[in-house]
Amino acid sequence: MTQTTEAAQGAVPAPAGPRRPRIHRAWFVAAVAFVTIIGGAAFNSLPGLLIEPLHESFHWSRGEIGFAVSIDMALYGLTAPFAAALMDRFGMRKVVVVALSMVAAGALLSVWMTASWQLMLYWGLLVGLGTGSMAMAFSATVTNRWFVERRGLVTGVLTAAGASGQLVFLPLCAWIVEDHGWKPASVTVALAALVVVPFVWLLLRDHPADVGLAPYGGEFVEKPAPRRGAAKRAVTVLFAAAKTGPFWLLAGTFAICGASTNGLVRTYFVPSAHDHGMPITAAASLLAVIGVFDVIGTIASGWLTDRFEARRLLAAYYALRGVSLLFLPMLMAPAVHPPMIFFIVFYGLDWVATVPPTLALCRDQYGEDSAIVFGWVLASHQVGAAVVAFAGGVARDVFGSYDVVWYAAGALCAAAALMSLVIRRSPAAPALKH
Predict the structure, then answer these.
(1) What is the pLDDT of residue 6?
(2) Which CATH architecture has domain 24-422?
(3) Distances from the Cα of 72 to the Cαs of 33, 307, 408, in angstroms?
(4) 231 vs 81, 185, 197, 235, 373, CA distance in Å?
(5) Which residue among 10, 205, 260, 411 has its CA within the 20 to 30 Å range from the CA of 143?
C-alpha cells in the first residue's frame, strides 16, 4: 500500500525538455525576417528610377549620381560582416531596429537635399549602413541559429525577400515618380522601413533557447554568451579566412555576381530601356517581373543546394547569366517584345540563385564562423556592384550608351563560372583559427 501510494505520489513527470510545437517557432522567426528584409529592401527599388529625375532636377551628372549609389552598395557589403558580429554581441533584434531607422532617415532626409554631397551622405552613408546591417548576413544568422534542417530552403526564401520587396515597390515607386515626382517616392520608401520596426521588436527572437526550443531539426543548445569585441572578431575572421584559397574564389565570384545584378541591371536597366524609348513605368514593371521569377529561382536554388554539389550549381548559374547579358543590348526597344520577356524570365530565375550555394560553401569551409565569412564575401559582392554602378554612369556620360557595360558584365560572368569549378568542397567545417 505504501509503495503504491509512494508510486502514485512520486509519479511526477520528468522535467520537460524543449517544447516541440506543431509549427516550429523557427518558421515564425523566418517569416518576420522575410518581412523585415522586404521593408529594408524597399530603397533598393529607388535608385534606378531616380537617376533621370535627379539628373533633370539638379543637373548632376549621371556619374555623380552613380557614385552615390556606389557608396550605398559598397557600404551595404562592408557593413555586413560587422553586423553579423554585432548580432552576436547585442542580438539580432536591436541591430535590425537601428538599421531600419537608418534606412528611413536616409530616404526621408533626401527630400530636402540641394547638393550632390548630401545625396552621397543620405543615400550612400545612412542607407548603405542601414541596409548592410540587415542584409544577407542577417539571413545567414537567422538560418544558422534557428535551423539545422532545411537551411538551403530557408536561405533561398530569405534571399528572395529582397526580390519580393522589388516586386512590391518597383511598380508603386515608378507610378509615384511618373505622376507625382521623385520626392513622394522617397517618402514612401522611408515609411515602408519604419512600418516594419514594431514587428521586429515584438516578434523577432535572437535564439531558440530564448523561448526554450531546439533549432528546427536539431538538438536543444544553450544560448551562447554575448561575444564582445564585435569589430575585432569580424576583422580577425577576415584575416584567417583570407589565408585560404576558397575565400578568394568565393569573394571573386560573388563580386562578379554583384556587378552583374545590383550594380548593372538593378541600377541601369530602367534608364537604359528609357534611352531606347521605353516608358519608365514599363521598364520598371519589367524589372519587377524579374523580382517575381527571382523568388521562384532563389527558392528553387535553395532546394537544389540541399541535393546537389554547390560549386557545379554556381558554375551553371554564372555561365547562363553571362550568355543572357551578351544578348540584352540587342533586345532593347521602345516596346516590349517576346524576346525581352524571355530575357526577363530567364534572368529573374538566375538573379540571386547564386546565394544558397555560396552560403553552403561558406558553411562547409568555415563552420561556426561562416556567417561572418559570408558577410565578407557579401562585401565583395557589393564592392563589385559599386564599381559597376559608378562605371555604368560614367560609360553613359562618355559613350552615350550602356552597351559596353552589358558586354563586359557578360564576359565577367564567364570568368566566374570557371572560378566556381575550382572551389573544392571541404570534408569538415571547423571554426577558423583566430
Answers:
(1) 42
(2) Up-down Bundle (1.20)
(3) 22, 35, 22
(4) 9, 35, 25, 6, 13
(5) 260
